[in-house]
Structures
1.
Amino acid sequence: MPAKKFVFSRRTPELAEDLPCPGNPATLFTPHDIDLANLRLQNFDQSGTTHGALHLEGVELTRLNLSQTTFGSITLKDVRLSNCDLANLVTRGLNLTRVEFHHCRLTGLSAGQADCQHVLLAESDLRYAQFRLSRFQSAEFDTSNLEEADFQGTDLTGTIFRRCNLQNAEMNRVKLANADLRGSNVDGLNVFPEGLRGATVDPAQAMVFARLLGIRIE
């Protein structure tokens, strides 16, 4: 009996159409623990600050600067971020459910053991981002730069990497079953051969990965 075909299915954020936009959104980020819902926040800078827990639900963020910021934990549900700067953000726990990042800067982000479900990262910069021992379910990376990102020990089952730069990314001990790497740059990708089991690659990538298996193609 043939194996059941894997079907990718990512759910998009559930956001209200007419979200209120507070006049001075930066004041909402002054408490140690931040809990916000059903808002549209844009054009403010909270870089270099330290907080406890951040919980956002049903929130749309545009041009938010949280670079060099530290959070004890971050939980985002039904959130869309556009043109936001999260470079070198540090958190010990990251939980994402139905979250989209568009044109965001996440270089050097340290996410701890992240749990990410139904997540899209599109046209974003994730160079040197750290996702060790994390889990991505129904996740999609689209036209993003993941050069030297660290996914060691991460479950990437079913994840799509579309037109991404994975050069020199760390993927030792990952799970890539039903993942789709086609169209991405995998030069220098550090991955054990068993981690590629069940992944879909294109012919050019197969030539790169053949060297991992000691296969000579003539």
2.
Amino acid sequence: MEGKPSVWREYLEALIIAAVFLLFTETFVVQTFYIPSGSMEDTLLIGDHLFVNRFIYGSSPTGVEKTALPFRNVRRGDIVIFRSPESPELDLVKRCVAVGGDTVQVINAQLYINGKAVHDSSYALHKNPDTGGFYVDPRMRFRDNYGPYTVPPGHYFCMGDNRDNSYDSRFWGTVPAHLVKGRALLIYWSYGGKTSTGQWEGVGAKARDLLETAFGFFSKTRWERTFRLIR
């Protein structure tokens, strides 16, 4: 008669199963993401921590999969997380404003898609209309006047909601579909204190950030943004 497995072995097996499940979930279903910059204000603020739906943009489902599972393509208005076309090691978050075949144009900061003005004042903001007076920074060249440009098939044109302070498709081009990781789903925590830039600054800096977050958790958490759906 075989002996019963030890309690430690049962705990170990349970932990391994949990780790595999979490890894699968993080990779294929839901991922976490935090906002390090103000390019999506006021929809997303620096310090917002998100759940990202990685399942929604399945890889070209057909037949039974397409009808039974909630797969779909990126749509205009979706807030998407994707790998940067310039630096694929970085993840970015922007709003898709145009899909393959659409013609994009910006005239005096007004966005036009297929020749029609986009009325997006419910989320698009212009916080810094000044482009620098007589000298226009080259980075501003396409900010307020761009195109017309037709988005290639299988690509997306993405812009930040903070239109005057967003480095986006106006500057580095469209996002290929294979770089899209998922759709922003829910703010599960919004922290108003210091937020990591994502760059490794050493053990000391990391420990200091963790302590500041721990001590400021209750006073600096934006409770009114907790569990807010992202639109």
